[in-house]
């Protein structure tokens, strides 16, 4: 098991999951700029009378650690939605995923992710992603935040699930 993993990762089958979200291109240092827009998604859902179906997530779509990340903050919903303005509707794909939970500060997730990637490589697993000139394009790479900062202000006590889609081949 990787040195930063608190538990053994598992492989799960996930169904499609509709969501509403906001996408942006940021540097590593600017991730909070996208994270801070999550209340906009919740507010938009509230104006539509739509309840979240599960915990919010960050979806890493394109990763170039030296330059730009394309990240989406999203909230799962029961039925597909049509977005408006900066809010987009989408569907997370069904398929096999590797998942692991981590309890601790979100800043620790870089090391946890590295350990998860090492664990998967040791198992001979491949990710549903392609390497392009502008970075790694992931079909679905999620950080799911299970704690509400209003209810758990101590970030070191947060539980986050890393959920990465495996290749279908």
What is the count of helical runs?
3
Q: How much helix, percentage-wise, in residues?
A: 10-25%
Strand-residue fraction?
35-45%
Which blocks of ≥5 consecutive residues have pLDDT under 50?
none
Shape: globular
Count structural domains.
Answer: 2
- Gap from first CA to last CA: 24 Å
Output the radius of gyration. Answer: 16 Å
Give the topology, please.
Blueprint: E1 10-14, E2 17-26, H1 31-35, H2 38-48, E3 57-63, E4 69-76, E5 88-92, E6 95-103, H3 109-123, E7 129-132, E8 135-138, E9 141-145, E10 159-165
Explained architecture:
The chain is an alpha+beta fold. The protein folds into two domains: 1-15 and 99-130 and 149-169, no CATH class; 17-92, Regulatory factor, effector binding domain (Multidrug-efflux Transporter 1 Regulator Bmrr, Chain A), CATH 3.20.80.10. Helices cover 18% and strands 38% of the residues. It contains three helices and ten strands. Strands 1, 2, 3, 4, 5, 6, 7, 8, 9 and 10 form a ten-stranded antiparallel sheet that branches. The radius of gyration is 16 Å and the shape is globular. It starts with 9 loop residues before the first strand and ends with a strand. The model has no long low-confidence stretch (mean pLDDT 93).
What is this structure, in a nutshell?
With 169 residues, the protein is α+β, with helices and mostly antiparallel strands.
List keywords for this structure.
169 residues, alpha+beta, Multidrug-efflux Transporter 1 Regulator Bmrr, Chain A, 2 domains, ten-stranded antiparallel sheet
């Amino acid at each position: 098991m990787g040195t930063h993993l608190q538990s053994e990762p598992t492989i799960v089958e996930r169904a499609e999951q509709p969501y509403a979200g906001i996408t942006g291109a940021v540097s590593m240092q600017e991730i909070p700029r996208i994270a801070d827009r999550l209340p906009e998604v919740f507010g938009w859902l509230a104006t539509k009378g739509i309840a979240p179906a599960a915990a919010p997530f960050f979806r890493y779509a394109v990763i170039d650690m030296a330059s730009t990340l394309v990240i989406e903050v999203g909230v799962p919903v029961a039925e597909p939605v049509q977005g408006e303005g900066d809010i987009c509707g989408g569907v997370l794909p069904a398929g096999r995923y590797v998942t692991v939970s981590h309890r601790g500060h979100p800043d620790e997730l870089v090391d946890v992710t590295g350990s998860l990637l090492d664990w998967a490589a040791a198992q001979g697993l491949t990710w549903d992603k392609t390497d392009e000139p502008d970075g790694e394009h992931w079909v679905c790479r999620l950080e799911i935040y299970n704690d509400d900062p209003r209810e758990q202000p101590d970030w070191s006590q947060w539980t986050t699930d890393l959920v990465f889609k495996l290749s279908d081949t």
